[in-house]
Amino acid sequence: MLSQTYLPDTSPRATIVVAICLVRDAVGNHVAAMLHSLRAAGYRTLLMVEHSDPRQTEEVRRSTMAVRLADLKYPTPQSQRAADHFFSSDVVIVVYPLYYELADLIKLARHSAVIFDYHSVTPPELWGPEQPGYTNLIIGQQRVDLVQYADYAIARSRFTGDELVRTGLIPPDRVVVTPLGSVTPSDPVRCEPDPSLVARYKPHGERVLLYVGRMARNKRLIDLVEALALVRQQVPNTILLLVGDNTFPLYRAYADEILARAANWGAASRSSSPVRCQTWSRTTACAICW
User: Fold this and answer.
1) What is the distance between the alpha carbons of residues 66 and 46, in angstroms, rounded to a whole number?
2) What is the pLDDT, as a whole number, of residue 118?
3) Neighbouring C-beta atoms of residue 166, cutoff 10 Å
4) Do residues 116 and 140 lie in contact, with contact meaning Cβ atoms separated by under 8 Å?
5) What angle do CA 174, 177, 181 make, to 5 degrees?
6) What is the model's pTM?
7) What are the structural domains of the chain?
8) Fewest Cβ atoms closer than 10 Å to its Cβ: which of 77, 153, 198, 247?
């Protein structure tokens, strides 16, 4: 009779914790890329979320488990596998764009290298107390103190790295600045160029400095306008094209401020404004890509 022997899985384990891994989202793309990289490096990786996005790729869905904090503290038969994986992980990465209950798992990691992956919280004063989500931003800033449970923290810029250091809860030499990479979506949006937008924004021999995103003050777009003068000293025919959402009142006010600053800059240099702005939608962003 043949006998079978099963060898235990000795692969290193990793757990990524995030509220939700959305498709077509900066943080979601980052998490999916991180999952892929860890798996390629030989880690048996589990993505723990509070809510699943059914639109995710098969690879992400296969590695995702929706759990509650209580499911890990007091495992049930349904959550025991997740609990076993978490508590035996060699690496635990807690992704923090805003506070969510599952982020408190960082306190429970026992024998893992713990990484606080910080994506910065929008300053509440830039959002406004009358806007939905204002309280969540306040809580999000307060709970950045979770960084004290991490061995290392990753920040997306020097500015956000300084935020973590100012808490006094993690040594500066444990904060690593790693900008977000660019991930090509598996299902890019495709559409035909809008002739009217192409006619309005298509450059005629100029170099284009392009920004696509929210017209939010913490994106520091005014710095791009100021920097454009320096860029044009080296490349005189450069224009700045801003494609973003300015339908939100605070965004619209900031976009108007940017355009006013650009108009003043153009008047001072006795030339037309080198800054052009277009309200954003996924279709619009695609339609002006000539």
Assistant:
1) 10
2) 97
3) 9
4) no
5) 140
6) 0.77
7) 13-177 (3.40.50.2000), 195-287 (3.40.50.2000)
8) 77
Q: Which of 3, 18, 90, 7 is nearest to 60 (CA)?
A: 18
Q: Cα–chain-centroid distance for residue 75? A: 31
Task: Give residue 182's pLDDT.
Answer: 57
Greatest CA separation found in the chain?
92
Residue 183 is predicted with a pLDDT of 55
Residues in contact with 158: Cβ distance below 8 Å, sequence separation at least 6, in sequence order: 177
The answer to whether the CB of 290 falls within 8 A of the CB of 193 is yes
**Residue 241 phi, psi dihedral angles, 5° rounding:** -110, 120
Amino acid at 194: D
Across the 290 residues of the chain, what is the mean pLDDT of every consecutive 10-residue run? 61 94 86 92 95 89 93 91 94 96 94 94 81 88 96 93 95 92 57 72 78 81 85 86 77 83 62 53 38
pLDDT at 283: 39
Report pLDDT for 282.
41
Asked whether the beta carbons of 146 and 106 are under 8 A apart, the reply is: yes
The DSSP secondary-structure symbol of 151 reads S
Q: Are the C-beta atoms of 51 and 60 separated by less than 8 Å? A: no
